[in-house]
Amino acid sequence: MHTIEQILSHLPNISKDGLNEVLNIIEQSRKFDNHHNSTVADNEFELRYANYLGTQDPKFVDYYQTIVEQACFAEFLEWYEYLSKHILRKDVQEVLGINFDYTSSDWESEVRKSDIFGWAFRIKDYQIYVDNIHKVAEIGSIMVKFFNQRKPLSILDNDYFDSDHAQLVLDSIQKVIIDNDKLELINQLHSDKVLCMIEVYGWENRFNPILLNWIFYNQDRVKSWT
């Protein structure tokens, strides 16, 4: 879809000046994306969010839920990385309920014995993650209580879960994925948590954080364009 048509489809009452502003932000922000990534942001999430601010369309809440769920999965893979890198440490093995050393001839079998972590070994299938979401939440709790107290175990800062995005992900695993709490999603969309959630995706060009921030901080104008 042409950019102008795309904007008008989501913001049908946008003024001429407003349209020019949004077009300029989209054009200029392309120069500040991840230039090592061939993906180009399509701005669809941001423009749908702009429409939601004025219409409160419940379909967007469902769409945002998929964004949150995928972000939580991506962050879980970060936790998996930290645990994997230190899998031979006895204190890591203790919390995972396993016990082996470097002389073992089959590390995989030993790790798979872990009730909390074994299911995730070399995970690629998102559904397996969903099927074990309560264990994901438990691993998140371990990351809070265990890794933050033992900084030498990983590159995590002591205040990792004091950072906005990490705590938001942990809360979202419980409230959004486990409890299916739609109100939590709505609350995120009406606070700067929506900005934080998109930051979980890093710099992969799937989203346009410059446009999203502009929309969020110009909500009164944007609402009038829907």
Give the arrangement of secondary structure elements.
Layout: H1 3-10, H2 16-29, H3 44-55, H4 58-85, H5 90-96, H6 107-112, H7 126-131, H8 133-145, H9 164-178, H10 182-189, H11 193-199, H12 209-216, H13 219-224
Helix pairs in contact: 3-12, 4-9, 4-10, 8-9, 9-11
Approximate strand percentage = under 5%
Number of strands: 0
- Estimated helix fraction: 55-70%
Helix-strand string? HHHHHHHHHHHHH
The count of helical stretches stands at 13
Using the alpha-carbon principal axes, give the shape. elongated
> How many angstroms separate the termini?
19 Å
Query: Could you say which structural class the secondary elements and strand pairing correspond to?
Result: mainly alpha
How many domains would you count in the coordinates? 1
- Most strands sheet: none
Mean pLDDT rating:
90
Cα-atom Rg, whole angstroms?
Answer: 21 Å
Weakly predicted, low-confidence segments: none
Structure characterization notes:
This protein has helices at about 5-10, 15-30, 45-55, 60-85, 90-95, 105-110, 125-130, 135-145, 165-180, 180-190, 195-200, 210-215, 220-225. By secondary structure, it is an all-alpha fold. It has one domain (about 5-225).
